[in-house]
Specification:
Pfam families: SpoIIE
CATH class: Alpha Beta
CATH topology: Phosphatase 2c, domain 1
Strand order of the largest sheet: 1-2-11-10-7-8
Protein name: SpoIIE family protein phosphatase
InterPro entries: PPM-type-like_dom_sf, PPM-type_phosphatase-like_dom, Ptase_RsbX
CATH architecture: 4-Layer Sandwich
Radius of gyration: 16 Å
Structural class: alpha+beta
Number of domains: 1
Organism: Salinibacillus xinjiangensis
Bound molecules: manganese (II) ion
Length: 199
């Protein structure tokens, strides 16, 4: 479990490999600068070391170019993965100057937004995975409001359980810790859950 308040975004992460595996095929990264916050989650198809090779390649290329626009990041990632095993991917970018966000998920990486008014909204992913050819990817954009909570998770997370119990008022650590305690014994796939609050 990782957690901490870095400047404007409070982040907590729960990650655990599939029961019986040592190596996690999910890989994530997040970073806050003065002008932006970015978080990325990649889930390599399959599990274990082969999956990890692809998901870590995807994360590293985005890490090296994290200030580039969304479309460019996806393109870089796509090029990096040609001849490798595929990944599904989620990216959330927050513009801390203009107070806007943009996000995308490709394949089954879940993203949900909890608004300060209690509304919960699941993002509809673009079907498929990377690498892919000639595809366009849906990018969702919106205004960033103080108190906005973003959840991003791999398909090892039991989404119904997560969304049923979570509220926008909880600390990020509480969200990941309670999920871990409820579901730790039922981890059927590599699992990563990131909880992030702005403001
Ligand atoms: Mn998975």
């Amino acid at each position: 479990m990782l957690n901490g308040k870095e400047n404007q975004i409070e982040v907590s992460v729960f990650q655990q490999p599939k029961i019986g595996n040592k190596c996690n095929g999910d890989y994530f990264f997040y970073k806050e600068t003065e002008t932006q916050f970015i978080s990325v989650l990649a889930d390599g198809l399959g599990s274990g070391a082969d999956a990890n090779e692809s998901s870590s390649a995807a994360i590293h290329i985005i890490k090296d170019h994290h200030t580039e626009p969304m479309e460019k990041l996806i393109k870089l990632c796509n090029n990096q993965l040609i001849h490798k095993r595929g990944v599904v991917l989620g990216i959330i970018k927050m513009d801390l100057v203009n107070k806007t966000f943009e996000l995308t998920s490709i394949g089954n990486v879940g993203i949900a937004i909890l608004k300060p008014n209690g509304e919960k909204k699941r993002n509809i992913p673009t079907p498929g995975y990377l690498p892919s050819y000639g595809h366009s990817f849906k990018v969702k954009r919106g205004e960033l409001e103080p108190g906005h909570v973003f959840l991003m998770y791999s398909d090892g997370v039991y989404e119904r359980s997560l969304l049923k119990h979570v509220t926008e008022k909880q600390d990020m650590f509480v969200i990941t810790d309670r999920y871990a305690k409820r579901e730790r014994e039922n981890i059927a796939d590599d699992t990563t859950l990131l909880a992030m609050r702005y403001g």
